# Entry
Amino acid sequence: MKTNRTPAFLLHLGVWLILITLLWLLLVSASALPNESIRANMEKSALSYADKDAFSFENGKKINSISDNYADTILLNVAWNMGEGNPLTSSLDTKYYDGEEFGESYGLYLAVTEGKAPNTDYTRYWHGSAVFVRLLHLVTDVNGVKIIGFSVSLLLLALTLFLLCSKKHYDIAVLICISLCVVQIWNVRLSMEYQPAFIIAFLLCILCLLLERKSDTYVTLLCVAGGTLVCFFDFLTAETLTLLLPLMLVIAVRAKEKRLSTFRESVIILAKCGTAWLASYAGAFIAKWTAATVATGENAFAKALSFAGERVGGEVSGTQEMPNTFFSSVTANLGAMLGTQRRLDYPATFLTLAIIILLLVSVWYLFRTADGEKTAAKLLLLLGSLVLVRFLVLNNHSFIHCFFTYRALAPTVFACLAALWFNIGFVKRKRGKK
# Structure
């Protein structure tokens, strides 16, 4: 047994090491790009936020339509400061000028136009999106970057759907589309920081659909890639998408093609995938904090872990509403998905959920079949429930930032729909005709 496990461990570790190294070198290369070559478009980007609120509503007062201008101005600021000094150091010593009493948008403008020195540490994240921010600012401004990012998301989604349809899994493709519509995927166009998790998730969906037939090892290796990539490019928006959505497609496809293992065997495989993803995700953070400590001579771990503590259970600030139970983060995210205008709109949230659940249960009760895909349903619902666990673990963060973290519920919606679809009579009749 030991002889089998060691090579597998080394293989996954090797993939992680190669990938995190290549990603960092990519960030170094982008940091080496002279700031003068992107100054004109960076100035346009900075000016575009002059008349915008930090968090602007784009569709009435719905929480799910908030554009996170605050996060984008910080990303632009960090990306700009990466171009100052030695690229090897600046790519790790990530910081920005916060504009002091005038705010982050003005801070970005002063940093770009007047060379204002950064005064705020932000080494706890990799800020990998800065690679494309800097490169794309050679030819466009922030609005162009958003359009390109959203277009890439849609292209990768289209390729995912094409692969499903090419295998005649039209139903799974439809369920994916419905799930993404429920979380208003079109709203990721509103912010650069909303896009990486979806781009990575769809890319992994494509690769999983292409490789899952070959071996489960390819799936666990892709989980290593997913954890590493989302840590590098994302900043806790909907990171679990990169694990759950690809795995759910694998389960759904295998179930339809009668290739799904037993529940116990499948859980073991999923546990390996989850471990690979989580270890890679945590390892990428540790790599950043270690490298930042070496680059700056300051303890990046202490700063990062302090912020991590706040994300889990710190005091809520910056919102008009305060959580009143341990489960407020879950309520806030469910409400955001359903289009509420407040984080804790209990009547609207739970009445709507009750109607939806009653409808789904009714359909199952009326059309349930004895020979449905019960194993697939259990596995999908198990994976879907992990999103709620994520909200509870990162309780403070999930409550404050529910206006973008709620998009992590897309796999949960898919799990519910697919579990139902695989276990109603229509599926049985359809198979009987083949």
Residues 263-296 form the longest helix (34 residues). The mean pLDDT is 93.
